[in-house]
Amino acid sequence: MTVSDHALEKAEKLPFWKGSVKPEPLSGGITNTNFVVSDRGERFVVRIGEDIPVHGVMRFNEQAASQAAFKAGVSPEVVYAEPGAMVLRFIEGQTLTPENVRQDDMLERIIPLLTKVHKTIPRYFKGPSLVFWVFHVLRDYAQTLGQDESRMSGELDTLMKTADNLEKEVGAINLVYGHNDLLAANFIDDGDRLWLVDWDYAGYNSPLFDLGGLASNNELSPEQEQWMLKTYYGTEIGRIDFRRYEAMKCASLLREAMWSMVQEIHSALNFDFVDYTEKNLTLFQNALEQFKQNSENYG
């Protein structure tokens, strides 16, 4: 049986269903397997996935974050959960693309949603919560990749030295509750409001990580980045704070690249992770070059 076959069988047999169901595969998941299921006149999304220790993904945390995000009004309702499976109400709408996110009118809707995530979810989160510190994640990935003799092993020392320098540049942080995976595909527009889904990596973090991730994952223009930061903070940010933001943006891209390096070895999903790694390494190198150039210009 393949991973998908096991996931399908698990989704079919969940005790939540009132009748016989036929789960339909839902594309997009690259750390879990997702289905759409019709039952009792409604549609639901089923997320099947075990803990992924190499990525720090703990399903108890994902479930608690998803439940808190629903109560905060930013994510669909979790109607059933058990170890390795979660059922949510289906949201009829458009899954965003990076091109959608780059539209100014869409950014004007995303930033208030992000502010709500950061400030409101902690009021509703129940139970133990994780912290997502990207520089710890990078160091952990480097150890995993070295032990597993990754094809990228020869690059790890250089990447870690860069990560250490970026961590120093970020400095002290303010702590908020972060989503920590702001890919365009994790936003759904139902025509009336935006929803944010997929809380696999949720945890307390600096707001700079979500802001940097939103910008880097969706290739915002420099003008849009300035607008995003001013809108989020309610004021123009100074040169030093912008430098800290740029450092975190670089770290976000490096994390995405190293996440993919680990997936190359550990994932059984049918996805071209080598190509994804190379794409994100290129984006990281470009952002790092821009960061260094700006540093020289600032003096």
Question: How is the largest sheet built, in terms of strand order?
Answer: 1-2-3-5-4
CATH class of the largest domain: Alpha Beta
Q: How many distinct helices?
A: 10
Query: Could you describe the largest sheet, including whether it forms a barrel?
Result: 5 strands, antiparallel
Helical content stands at 40-55%
Gross morphology: globular
The poorly predicted ranges are: none
Give the total of beta strands.
Answer: 10
Strand content: 5-15%
Annotated CATH architecture of the largest domain:
Alpha-Beta Complex
Series of H and E elements: HEEEHEEEHHHHEEEEHHHH
**What's the mean pLDDT score?**
95
* CATH fold-level name of the largest domain: Aminoglycoside 3'-phosphotransferase, Chain: A, domain 2
Query: How many angstroms separate the termini?
Result: 59 Å
* CATH level-four homologous superfamily name of the largest domain: Aminoglycoside phosphotransferase (APH), C-terminal lobe
Summing up helix and strand content along with how strands pair, one would put the structural category as: alpha+beta
InterPro entries: Kinase-like_dom_sf
Keywords: Kinase, Transferase
Pfam families: Choline_kinase
Organism: uncultured marine bacterium MedDCM-OCT-S04-C448
